[in-house]
């Protein structure tokens, strides 16, 4: 995907581009921030991948024909979206989506911008089916996904146990034939 710029609702000009393994350290920092915020996450800080594992993950996603996008505000990584593809000829039209925006950059349109860029890329790169898992209490993410055509497929009741012991559902969603005009 070619790099592109996007101005969010707070007037910040953001650069959206593919990550490289050199971005692993800032990706680790962003993950730590998202995990400590906790909303929408299913990891605790000790379970976060260290930077060397993240560097390998970025390479692996690209080697398998997927894309790992980052959004940068003044060189600082503030959001990511990855589409991971299965490296099998009969399955490579599928991708699994994950995304996260730094808390202080949320709610300003960046999530939608990353999602639309990624789905446009997917459409022109032979991905006709995208799937994801989202926590049942993450209504913001669900609304975003539904607005671009994802449909809920299956609810896993009580799949997530939060650190305070509460059980939360988890929703499996899929998008077929992403729309070229997104
Ligand atoms: C979910 C997330 C990716 C959305 O990104 P974002 O940049 O905050 O979202 P946007 O500002 O682009 O808003 C997109 C849509 O989300 C929904 N949304 C945004 N803020 C919302 C809020 N406060 N309440 C409910 N829905 C909201 C709206 O449908 C919005 O549509 P709009 O473009 O018409 O306003 C982001 O909030 C995030 O990273 N959350 C924490 C990690 C996470 O949940 N990741 C997803 C795991 S599956």
Bound molecule types:
coenzyme A
The oligomeric status of these chains comes to single chain
- What's the CATH C level of the domain at 4-127? Alpha Beta
Q: What integer value in Å does the Rg equal?
A: 16 Å
**What is the helix content?**
25-40%
Strand order of the largest sheet: 1-2-3-4-5-6-8-7
Query: Which overall shape is indicated by the principal axes computed on the Cα atoms?
Result: globular
User: Major sheet, described briefly?
Assistant: 8 strands, mixed
In DSSP terms, counting alpha (H) and pi (I) runs of 4 or more, how many helices?
A: 4
Overview of the structural elements:
The chain is α+β, with helices and mostly antiparallel strands and 182 residues long. The protein has a domain at 4-127: 3-Layer(aba) Sandwich (Aminopeptidase). It is built from four helices and eight strands. The chain has helices at residues 24-37, 51-63, 110-123, 139-147, and strands at 4-7, 13-18, 67-73, 76-85, 94-101, 129-135, 151-161, 167-176. An eight-stranded mixed beta sheet has the order 1-2-3-4-5-6-8-7. Helix 1 crosses helix 2 (51-63). It is globular and about 40 Å long. The two termini are 15 Å apart. The mean pLDDT is 95. Bound molecules: coenzyme A. Residues 34, 39-40, 99-101, 106-112, 132, 134, 138-141, 143-144, 147 line the site of coenzyme A.
